[in-house]
Amino acid sequence: MNQTLIFDVSSLSNKGPGKSVKYSFDGPANFEDFKLNSNLKGNIEIMRLDEGFNCKISNVETVVELTCDRCLKEFDQGINIEEDERQYHFHKPEIIEDPNDVFLVDVEKQEVDLTEPLRQQIILHFPQLPVCYQRCKGICPICGVNGNTKQCDCKEELPEENKPLSALKSLIKKNNA
Q: pLDDT-based confidence at 69, cuts 50/70/90?
């Protein structure tokens, strides 16, 4: 459980729609899918709605540990989330377009837990191709040496059947014969 991401909404429960409260958060958070190497920092504004709350996060920052797609080394990647909004309902809505996007208020404790929405947003902010640095040479596909730390003598040669124009080459040979 991430105490950093659980917010008390009891002060808004008895108020009418449109009333809001703002919080800042800065603390550790744990997720199953990835590891954070710094505190999760940001702001949240919770506004009362007729059937729940609107939670608007902003200026969220953290550092996540990723694995380089080229050399398989772990490295730190800064994540910045400018803004995201989610609605938390008192009761499960009758019409659900996406069950992964339905969040409920813990009515007994008068709390909202932002762990899952923030987990989703952090993953959405991962780079498409995580690399430790742009000029990473990666691992040699033949001998497995990390090209960033040692140079190997392998000549990267594709087998004839894996070359993109090998079928054309065989057709030319067939026609010339």
A: very high
* Average pLDDT estimate for 78-100: 87
Distance CA(166)–CA(51), nearest Å, equals: 64
* pTM of structure: 0.77
3-state secondary structure of 162: helix
Do residues 157 and 142 lie in contact, with contact meaning Cβ atoms separated by under 8 Å?
Answer: no
Give every CB contact of residue 94 below 8 A, 6+ residues apart in sequence: none
Contacts 24+ apart (CB under 8 A), 115-119: 115/1, 115/2, 115/5, 115/6, 115/29, 115/31, 117/55, 117/57, 117/84, 117/86, 118/5, 118/29, 118/40, 118/57, 118/60, 118/81, 119/31, 119/33
Intra-chain end-to-end CA distance of the chain, in Å: 73
Examine the pLDDT at 38 and tell me if it is beyond 80.
Answer: yes
* Exposure on the CB side of residue 122, measured as CA atoms within 13 A: 27
Residues with Cβ < 8 Å from 171, sequence gap 6 or more?
none
Element (H, E) at 122: helix 115-124
Q: Which two tokens stand for residue 87?
A: 């609605």
